[in-house]
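Re: weekly structure request thread

Next one in the queue (544 aa):
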Amino acid sequence: MSTRKIPLTGIAGLKENWRQDLVSGFIVFLIALPLSLGIAMASGVPPMAGIITAVIGGMLVSRFNGSHVTINGPAAGLIVVILAAVESLGAGDPMAGYRAMLAAVVVSGVLLFLLGRLKAGRLGDFFPSSAVHGMLAAIGIIIFSKQVHVALGVKPTGKEPLQLLAEIPHSIAHMNPEVAIIGLASLLIMFTLPLFTSKWVKMIPAPMVVVLVGIALGHAFDLEHEHKYLFLDGHEYSIGPKFLVTLPDRIMDGLVFPDWSKAFTLPFLAAVVSITLVQGIESLLSAKAVDKLDPYKRESDLNKDLSAVGAGSALAGLIGGLPMIAEIVRSSANINNGGRTGWANFFHGFFLLVFIAAFPTLIHSIPLAALGAILMFTGYRLASPQHFKHTLHIGPEQLSIFVTTLMVTLATDLIIGVFSGILLKLIIHLSRGATLRSLFKPNLHLRYDHMSDRFVLEVHDAAIFSNYLGMKKKLDGIPPKAHVRVDFDQATLVDHTVLEHVHAYKEKYERAGGRFEVTEMGHLVPRSQHPFAARRKPKKTVLS
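Done, posted below.
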C-alpha cells in the first residue's frame, strides 16, 4: 500500500499543489497543441476543433470528472469514426459533413452522460482484451495509411484503409520533395528523440520539437507563398500555404454550430453509435490504465468520469469541437512530470486557450507534414509489432481474435470489427465446453468460512469475459479489508480477460488493506506460459 500523502482536491488541492500542477500542465500543453491540431485535421475537420475540445476538456471537465491525473482532449482513436461520419453525412461537402457530425457528437455526449449516471462504467470490464487491442491496432493502421500521404505531400485517390495502404508506393514515387523532407525529418525526430536519456533532451516533448523543426523548414522552403521549384530529378513541383495549418485569426471565427437537418437519418444514427461505442470504451480503458500509473494509487470513479466526458463532448460539439476521452499519452506525461491533481488538466487547457488567442499566426506556420509525421508515429505505436508478439505470447487463440478484429475493422468499420472479435471469442468458448447458459451468467457460490475467517467465492463451470460482470458484482459485495479467496477448483474454463481482471481486482483490494487469494488452478491446462493465459479442463482420455 502506498505510504505517500494523498494530495488534496478542489481549491485546497490547488493551494497545496499548484506549483507541480502548473509545471506539468505547461509540459502537457506542449504535447497537446500539435496532437490536437493533427487529430482534428486527420478527422477531416478544421484544426480549431481539436483545440476547442482540449480547452473544454482541461478547463471545464477537469472540475467535475471522476479521475485525478487524466488529461482530457481529442484522441487518435476517434479519428476513424469522426472522419467516417464527416464523409457519410457530408455526401461530398466537407463543411456540411462537419456540421452534421457536430450534432452527432452532441447526441453521443448526452448518451454517455446518461450512461454514466446509470452506472455503466462497469461495462468497461465486458469487452475482451484481445478484441479491444485489435480495434486499437486497426485504428493505428488506418491513421498511418492516411497520414503517410500527408507527410509525403501527395493527395491519394483512394478513401478506404486498404486502398490507402496500396497507394503508399505510388505516393513515395510521386512525393513532393520539400514536403517529404519535412515529413521524414519529423518522423525521424519522433522515433529517435525518446531514445536519448539526457534529462535536458527530455525536457522538451518530441511533438513540440517536431513542430519547431517543421516551422523552421517551412520558412526555409517558403511554404507561406505559392510557388514552383525544381528538384534534383529536374521535375517541377508546386508548394504553398495549402501545406500549412489553417487557423482563423480570431477565436470566435473558429466556432461552428451543429446542423440538425440530418438527425435521425441512418448515417446520422450510425455515426452516433460509432462515436458513443469507441469513445465510451476508450474513455473507460484509458481511465483504468492511468489509475495504474498514478503513484498515489488513487482510483477513478468511472461512472462519474463517463458522465463528465459525455457532458464535455456535448458542449464541445455545440461550438465546433470533437468528442474527448481521458487520453493515455498526455495523462502519462502529466504523471511523469509531477502532476498531482486535476488542476494540471485545467492548466493544460488554460495554456492552450492563451496560446491560441495570442499566437494564431505562429500556428499557421506549422506544416501539415510535421503533424502527419506525429500521427504516423501515433499510429505505429497503436499497431506496433510488439502488440502482435505480446498477444501471441498470451495464446494463439488470443492472436486469432486480435487479428480477426483488426482485419474486419480494416475491411468494414469499427463496430463490425469489434463485434466480430467478440463473436469469435464466444465461438471459441463454446467449442471448449462453455454452455449457452454460462455465456452471460456465471455459476458462482459465495460463502463465509468461519474456520478460516474468510469469504470464499467458488467459481463453477466457465468463467469468461462475457460473464465476468456477475463475478465482479459478487466481489464488490464483500466488505473491504476482509480476507477473500477466489476458488477456481470447480471451474472448467477460465479465459484471459477474467484472469487479467481478477489480478487487477486483487491489487486494488490489497491496496485498500484487504487480503485476496486466488487458487492455483492446477487442474486446468494453460494455453501458453503467460501467467494470464486462458485455461481449460483437459479432455478425458479413454484407456483401451
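The chain has two domains: 10-379, 437-536. The chain has a mean pLDDT of 93.
Next request, please.
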